[in-house]
Fold this protein.
Amino acid sequence: MNSRQLQYAVLLSESGNFSHVAESLNITQPALSKQILSLEKELGVQLFDRNRNPVTLTAAGEHFIREAREILYRESQLMKSMEQFGSGDKGQLVIGITPFRSAYLIPETVKKVREKFPGVQVKLAEEGSEALRKNAAEGMFDFAVVNMPVDESVLDAVLIEPDRLALVIPESIKTDFSVSEETDFSLCKDIPFVVLGAGQEMRQLFEKLCIHSDVRPQIAAEVVNLTSAWEMACAGVGATLLPLQFVNGKRHRNVTVVKLKNSFYLRQPAVVVKKGQYLSAYARYAIKLLTKGED
């Protein structure tokens, strides 16, 4: 039994299709089948029920895959911990984060990490919140940024300062809002809005705010990301709801930014790491930047 066979078995358990796994590994299907059969023969048990399509795990297979994942994870952690001895400050920093937050939370952190560790390559794994929690628990990232709560029996969590909502209003839309004061969202009943797509976190927050404030919004446009929403507002299409941290990094063009009352996110963001996971010096530095800032 070797690491390659463990990897093949794990991938097959996820896909349930020999040909798909073989294609992803750039090997032939017979070669993959031979490796799985050899593994089962060595173990003396059948791991996969091949009479079903897709193939499924037997009871013995379910136990084996759980242990195989842990072994592969430990191997990857050992390799990471040894990188510093062979390559100094070189390596790869993998950060799990939603596209929603990567647009404004990560760029400055990446810049500072690269300044301190120029040999480090940063990779952003942009996924939805549920996928981030699952993959962080499996040690797929150096760390991830997710909303609380998380399973703290599996993940260590360090809180980040909550984002705050801001209303970005084109100057062409006349309002009675005072820029110097926080505004109640209930005053936005007659304003056209630019919103993110259904299911996105920012859209969900917008809808909750509308319900709470008894606002039936006029939707002028629906876009896919924060930058597009900002550009639409600057073009005068409609007002949009954005994180204040995102807005503060932009040059205001024909828009007014208004802070909202009681507009802190209901969900608390945090940096999460699988318990016991090895953290490189550059991963620890990135986490420090996100949670505390530089000394």
Remarks:
- DSSP finds eleven helices and twelve strands in the chain.
- The two ends are 48 Å apart (CA to CA).
